UniProtKB/TrEMBL annotation:
Keyword tags: DNA-binding, Transcription, Transcription regulation
Origin superkingdom: Bacteria
Organism for this UniProt entry: Rhizobium ruizarguesonis
Protein name: Crp/Fnr family transcriptional regulator
Residue span(s) of domain HTH crp-type: 151-217
Amino acid sequence: MPQFDQSTVENTLLKLLSVDGFARLSGEMERVDLPLRHVLVASDVPTTHVCFLERGLGSMVVSSTDEEVVEIGHIGPEGASGMHVVLAVETTPTRTFMQVAGSGIMVPMETFQRALADDPEMKDFFLRYVHTTVLQLAHSALANARYNMHERLARWILMCHDRLEGNNLAITHEFLALMLGVRRSGVTNELHVLEGVHAIRSTRGNVRILDREKLIEIAGGCYGVPEREYEKVLGLPHCAR
């Protein structure tokens, strides 16, 4: 198994760990490719690995008993999947899968849990990260309840942009509609609104960001608080932009 150098990993959480904390995990780390729609956390199934993303975008979704599905959060190189185990929960009804293909570092759940038990400082660190994911979920609920569709769409695009390299998002209109819980026609209309103010350019299967500051202006109060909290409690920028 290859050795991992903390200075060269591309996941922010792993970079932020203490040297001792990183060493507790590194012996069992495995770098893996994460193809499109690869499931990181399955609903109601014991999670076997924590995945620290280095590239790509993970989507956390929740489903109702009548199969309604909506996205509640994103994971990119700033985060990791399987964090419910930090709260001593073995399974979760939510699902996490790759929305944009990438790569990551897998750590067996037993190794991760043992490290948390042996290192209280490390456990506190991951609890702070869980706090930021809960806040992201809360602001998704706020956006869905109180903000217009074009504001929510601007927020969603910004959250993707935070976690992906470059200015192109390989996302279809159908997938956007599923993630935002609206009809495809509604997403298409709102994309045209954002195009009209030259914030994005939308083509089949791709959204290109032209003016990030314009998107932040459009999103208004539904974007920014979770991102600032991440920087506050973890001590590094949420993204490199």
